[in-house]
Specification:
The complex is a heterodimer. By secondary structure, chain A is mainly alpha-helical. Helix content of chain A is 31%, strand content 0%. The two termini of chain A are 22 Å apart. Chain B is mostly helical. In chain B, 52% of the residues lie in helices and 4% in strands. Chain B is built from 9 helices and 2 strands; from the N terminus they run ααααααβαβαα. Chain B has a two-stranded parallel ribbon. In chain B, strand 1, helix 7 and strand 2 form a beta-alpha-beta unit. In chain B, helix 3 packs across helix 4. Classes of the chains: A mainly alpha, B mainly alpha.
């Protein structure tokens, strides 16, 4: 599994993200809500 | 494309830009505009970057995008907007609205100004056509004509 940090997106990540051909819906997951479980 | 969703007003793609602007150390207004607007001229983009020669000047820009109230913790920004509207609702000097009819975020927003600001009541408002969010770049002559006509009247 490839894990890429997008927490602080760089200009290169911006170009990759906004230049992507993906056209489906976006889902935003708030991982902080799972913090207690993870710990 | 994702960029098309952004230009259509997708909130989640906007939040990606918010994170970039707020936290990327080398954030550049010109680079962001070059990526996300229709502005292509290097000199024009440099003009948007010029007011922020280094990171000492850019705190406001970094914060500005995050003031768009999309999340629960934005209540303070909503309250600030309400206080701003209270000032506008007491503004009785002439106020022109000259919005773009193609701005994905602001299209139609003129109605609230026209209804709530006393100074907007007796003004002949205009709606600019054929432009998008950066109306001053997309339709500069049309927008200038709207403003000049308003000031002459």
């Amino acid at each position: 599994m490839k894990v890429v940090s997008q927490v602080m997106p760089s200009q290169e990540q911006m170009q990759e993200f906004f230049g992507s051909g993906d056209n489906g819906p976006f889902v935003m997951a708030n991982l902080l809500k799972f913090k207690a479980t993870a710990e | 494309m994702v960029s098309e969703q952004f230009r259509a007003g997708s909130p989640i793609t906007f939040l990606y830009l918010v994170k970039h602007a707020a936290e990327y150390p080398d954030f550049s207004v010109g680079d962001a505009f070059g990526l996300l607007s229709n502005i292509r001229g290097e000199q024009v983009l440099a003009g948007y970057t010029a007011p922020f020669p280094d990171d000492n000047y850019i705190a406001g820009v970094r914060k500005f995008l995050s003031c768009v109230p999309l999340l629960e913790h934005h209540q303070a920004d909503c309250d600030a907007n309400d206080r701003a509207w209270a000032v506008l609702e007491a503004f009785d000097r002439p106020l022109l609205t000259a919005f773009s009819d193609g701005g994905p975020v602001t299209k139609g927003g003129e109605a609230e100004f026209q209804q709530r600001v006393p100074g907007a009541e007796s003004v002949k408002h205009t709606t600019n056509t054929g432009g998008r969010h950066f109306l001053q770049e997309d339709q500069p002559e049309q927008l200038s004509h709207s403003i000049i006509t308003f000031m002459r009247d």
